[in-house]
């Protein structure tokens, strides 16, 4: 507990925990290893071990640097030529290169092994520990693949570079690079959730149609990762809203006129540059059918929503680990903080919540591999809205509570706990905010009864082991039945569906003790809203030990 290395002239520094660093973020995380194995990802363990070594090692520091030395925007070069250059700290490029080279953007599209989405999800989860901000371009690049496949001739040129496992952060044309990254630009000032309000207009340069060249004029109010090599952009055409691939460079080697207006000054997500842009006759290629832009881009959107689940699960897991680690290294009133009963209740509650979040994220990763199975495809459809809504919302309260476990040092910016808290709301806001997820769920409830039946079946597979859970599943079916007030009750309904899905996943695939504790805390007892209110008969020590990082390196 006492540190001789930190003496000062006036006092002895003691009772401060060692920082959680120089450790292997994969092998130290028993819960992540459990869920990777549970859903068929054992074959990826060596790769994840190597990945986790860097994440808990040099890349942890790279993440701190990338969030301290923020991206800066240079509109023109020193002679006044327009360059639209965003400069990042070298750490950012290091983080991007590491993730891409290990398959963060490509693995599920290149590997044949069952469990490929699960291993990739674990990678995305671990990467978030080092830096959630660079997770944004990584996610968009990964998620662009199914949307690009809507246009075979374009896909043929771009996909090999997207899945190449190479990172090249230089501001040069995409065709001069071995590997590329992609962004997406949908949101305009007058409407982000309602993209039908988009006014950016695309005019055909020659004949209209899929794969043809258009000229785009308009603006986008949010465009993250503006140094991406191309963007999937929604723009109006004579046939309605359509989806375009808009590269940053033209094929003749000139800059495609996508002018960055400025970078956003954001609450969190700082290593990731988010910009406002204008298209000034920018060239773009139509993906899929004209007028079917939402149908084309929704495949990308769905995967980025799924990645928000993983990202927020990771924020919660890291916050939990930091809280447990810190409290295990600090004494109060003569006893380690993590042995104080009330602190144990908070820590165990945080641990339960983050494991439940990871469990459904991994369940969805598994389902994504089996989209030709109607049950799994329907689960992806409905589970993405439920999981995105619930996990991203829970992360905000969760990261705050974990920060409080650290006391004052948690609140200062050189501690990762405060970064996790500032990061947490973004996953809830972008890619369809909370209410938009609820509206998506309502669409399923009112128009896709078969999908709802699959969700109920997924819950029912877990019945028979716990009476309280069984009763709650039947209660949910009644709640879904009365349709007339659903539009007002959607948050209540989605919340209940989320908790029961988490309980079902834990009961079916999880450790029995954890599943039992979760049902007791979240299904049987629902009147408390702060963390640290688990019923006292729950074995909190076991839950905390499971979540404790396993070694310090
Ligand atoms: C850091 C950051 C980076 C971003 N990066 C990108 C990017 O790269 N590309 C991109 O295209 N966009 C990006 N966005 C934009 C983001 O996706 C939008 O902000 C988001 O979709 C919400 O749109 P909006 O801001 O226009 O809010 P609005 O659409 O005005 O929504 C405001 C609120 O109203 C709610 N709401 C909307 N409709 C309804 C309804 N019918 N009933 C009830 N409630 C409703 C929403 O849930 C939300 O809470 C980014 C945003 C942030 C914060």
Question: Could you tell me how far the N terminus lies from the C terminus, measured between alpha carbons in angstroms?
Answer: 18 Å
**Helix and strand run:** HHHEEHHHHHEEEEEEEHEEHHHHHHHHHH
Average pLDDT across residues? 96
Q: What coarse outline follows from CA principal-axis ratios?
A: globular
Helix content: 40-55%
Low-confidence stretches: none
Class by alpha and beta content: alpha+beta
Helix count equals 19
Bound molecules: flavin-adenine dinucleotide
**Beta-strand segment tally:** 11
> Major sheet, described briefly?
7 strands, mixed
| Rg on CA atoms, Å | 24 Å
Strand content: 5-15%
Give structural notes:
Pfam families: Acyl-CoA_dh_1, Acyl-CoA_dh_M, AidB_N. Residues 291-445 form the Acyl-CoA dehydrogenase/oxidase C-terminal domain. This is DNA alkylation response protein. Residues 183-281 form the Acyl-CoA oxidase/dehydrogenase middle domain. Its cofactor is FAD. This protein has 553 residues and is an alpha+beta fold. Helix content is 52%, strand content 13%. It is built from 19 helices and 11 strands. It has helices at residues 30-38, 45-55, 58-68, 90-102, 107-110, 116-130, 135-148, 152-162, 293-328, 341-368, 374-405, 408-411, 416-429, 434-447, 449-460, 467-481, 486-509, 512-524, 540-547, and strands at residues 72-76, 82-87, 182-185, 201-204, 213-224, 230-237, 240-247, 258-263, 274-287, 331-332, 335-336. Strands 3, 4, 5, 6, 7, 8 and 9 form a 7-stranded mixed sheet that branches. It has a two-stranded antiparallel ribbon with strand order 1-2. A two-stranded antiparallel ribbon has the order 10-11. α10 (341-368) runs antiparallel to α11, α10 (341-368) crosses α18 and α11 packs antiparallel against α14. It is globular. The two termini are 18 Å apart. 52% of the residues are buried. The mean pLDDT is 96. It binds flavin-adenine dinucleotide. Residues 183-187, 191-193, 222-224, 266, 269, 274, 426, 429-431, 433-436, 439 line the site of flavin-adenine dinucleotide.
């Amino acid at each position: 507990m006492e540190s001789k290395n930190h003496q000062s002239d006036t006092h002895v520094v003691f009772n401060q925990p060692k920082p959680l660093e120089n450790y292997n973020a994969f092998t130290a995380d028993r819960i992540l290893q459990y869920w990777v194995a549970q859903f068929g990802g054992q074959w990826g363990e060596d790769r994840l071990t190597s990945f986790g070594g860097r994440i808990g090692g040099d890349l942890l520091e790279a993440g701190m640097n990338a969030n301290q030395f923020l991206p800066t925007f240079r509109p023109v070069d020193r002679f006044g030529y327009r360059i639209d250059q965003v400069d990042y700290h070298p750490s950012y490029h290091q983080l991007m290169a590491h993730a891409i080279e290990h398959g963060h953007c490509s693995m599920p599209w290149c590997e044949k092994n069952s469990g490929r989405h699960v291993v990739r999800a674990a990678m995305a989860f671990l990467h978030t520990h080092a830096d959630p901000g660079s997770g944004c371009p990584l996610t968009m690049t990964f998620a662009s693949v199914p949307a690009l496949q809507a246009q075979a001739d374009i896909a043929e040129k771009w996909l090999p570079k997207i899945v190449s496992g190479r990172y090249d952060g230089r501001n040069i044309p995409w065709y001069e690079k071995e590997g590329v990254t992609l962004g997406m630009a949908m949101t305009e000032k007058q409407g982000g959730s309602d993209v039908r309000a988009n006014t950016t207009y695309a005019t055909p340069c020659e004949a209209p149609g899929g794969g043809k060249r258009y000229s785009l004029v308009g603006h986008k109010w949010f465009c993250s990762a503006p140094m991406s090599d191309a963007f999937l952009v929604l723009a109006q055409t004579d046939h309605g809203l359509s989806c375009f691939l808009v590269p940053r460079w033209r094929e003749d080697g000139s800059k495609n006129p996508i002018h960055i207006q400025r970078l956003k000054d954001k609450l969190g997500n700082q290593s990731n540059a988010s910009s406002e842009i204008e298209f000034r006759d920018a060239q773009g290629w139509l993906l899929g059918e004209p007028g079917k832009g939402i149908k084309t881009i929704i495949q990308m959107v769905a995967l980025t929503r799924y990645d928000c689940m993983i990202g927020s699960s990771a924020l919660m897991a890291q916050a939990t680990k930091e809280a447990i680690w810190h409290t295990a290294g600090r004494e109060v009133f003569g006893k380690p903080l993590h042995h104080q009963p009330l602190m144990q209740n908070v820590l165990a509650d945080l641990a339960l919540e983050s494991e439940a979040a990871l469990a459904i994220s991994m369940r969805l990763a598994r389902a994504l591999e089996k989209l030709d199975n109607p049950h799994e495809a329907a689960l992806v459809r409905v589970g993405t809205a439920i999981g995105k809504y619930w996990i991203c919302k829970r992360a905000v309260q969760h990261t705050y509570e974990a920060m409080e476990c650290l006391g004052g040092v948690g609140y200062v910016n050189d501690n990762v706990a405060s970064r996790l808290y500032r990061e947490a709301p973004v996953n809830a806001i972008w890619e369809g905010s909370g209410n938009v997820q609820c509206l998506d769920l309502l669409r399923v409830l009112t128009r896709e009864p078969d999908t709802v039946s699959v969700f109920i079946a997924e819950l029912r597979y877990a019945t028979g082991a716990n009476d309280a859970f069984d009763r709650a599943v039947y209660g949910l079916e009644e709640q879904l039945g009365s349709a007339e007030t659903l539009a007002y009750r959607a948050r209540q309904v989605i919340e209940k569906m989320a908790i029961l899905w988490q309980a079902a996943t834990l009961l079916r695939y999880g450790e029995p003790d954890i599943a039992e504790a979760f049902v007791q805390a979240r299904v049987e007892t629902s009147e408390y809203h702060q963390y640290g209110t688990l019923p006292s008969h729950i074995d909190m020590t076991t839950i905390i030990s499971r979540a404790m990082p396993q070694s310090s390196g």
